[in-house]
Amino acid sequence: MISFRVDGRSGVPAYLQIVQQVRQALRMGALDMGDQLPSVREVVAAVVVNPNTVLKAYRELEREGLVEARAGAGTFVRARPPGPPPSTYSPLGRSLARWVSEARSAGLDDEAIESLLQLTLRAAHLREGIA
Amino acid sequence: MISFRVDGRSGVPAYLQIVQQVRQALRMGALDMGDQLPSVREVVAAVVVNPNTVLKAYRELEREGLVEARAGAGTFVRARPPGPPPSTYSPLGRSLARWVSEARSAGLDDEAIESLLQLTLRAAHLREGIA
Predict the structure, then answer these.
(1) Do residue B112 and residue A24 have CB atoms under 8 angstroms apart?
(2) What b/e readout covers B83-119, taking b as 16+ CB neighbours within 10 angstroms?
(3) pLDDT digits over A55-66, tens only?
(4) How many CB atoms lie within 10 A of CB A103?
């Protein structure tokens, strides 16, 4: 079953971190059709987060059509977000891990790495004219 | 002079986006000692953001010792954040740009790319025992 991490320093609201982690698990195949999400109680026991935060995340995922709540049973995956199949991610993940290892060896911390990605994505958009 | 981008969909508070962009410009050498930051008025004219948001960002940067406000003159860079020299960033930026280009060709959108980086950073931390 998926487990969540909530980083209080990232600036991203906790509910949105949970939403993004479910979406990414679906993209990468770590979660699949019919899989059950942990109950609110289980999430709250594992992560320092308010029950309402988890509910808000699950409601957002339901609104997007990715999960459905079944009364008395729990919350289950009903669709994958659009995008390439999970098999796409392994080779990209491996090459990104090599790059991250190089960047960290050069002394970049997480914020420097994340900021460099932001700049790189923005440059890619500008080149494609979809800034 | 540095120009800011504020992405309302990222979930990261606008003031923090400005803080991070100044820090990254300092790391990469796009901003250097003595350089002047745009005035609050200039930022507000260029980006859809509240003057108080810009003030909050500049105050945070001042608190970190990276910039100083000079009465009647403006806000100026007074230090770089810790980390490797700006020359470190060019080769890493180029290799990251190649990776991003590959990921986008494979169909990954920005959120998928950013989430993959989060997972990769977390895996790197876990390997080093500093999760």
Answers:
(1) yes
(2) beebebbeebbeebbebbeebbeeebbbbbbbbbbbb
(3) 999 999 999 999
(4) 25
Among B115, B121, B91, which residue's Cα sits nearest to residue B103? Answer: B115
The alpha-carbon gap from A112 to the nearest alpha carbon of chain B, in Å, equals 6
State the residue for tokens 């949970």: A18
What is the distance between the terminal CA atoms of chain A, rounded to a whole angstrom? 37
- Band (pLDDT 50/70/90 cuts) for residue A131 is low
| Residue A6 pLDDT class (50, 70, 90 cuts) | very high
For residue B67, list its beta bridge partners.
Answer: B77
* 3-class SS of residue B36: strand
Question: Are A106 and B88 within 8 A, CB to CB?
Answer: yes
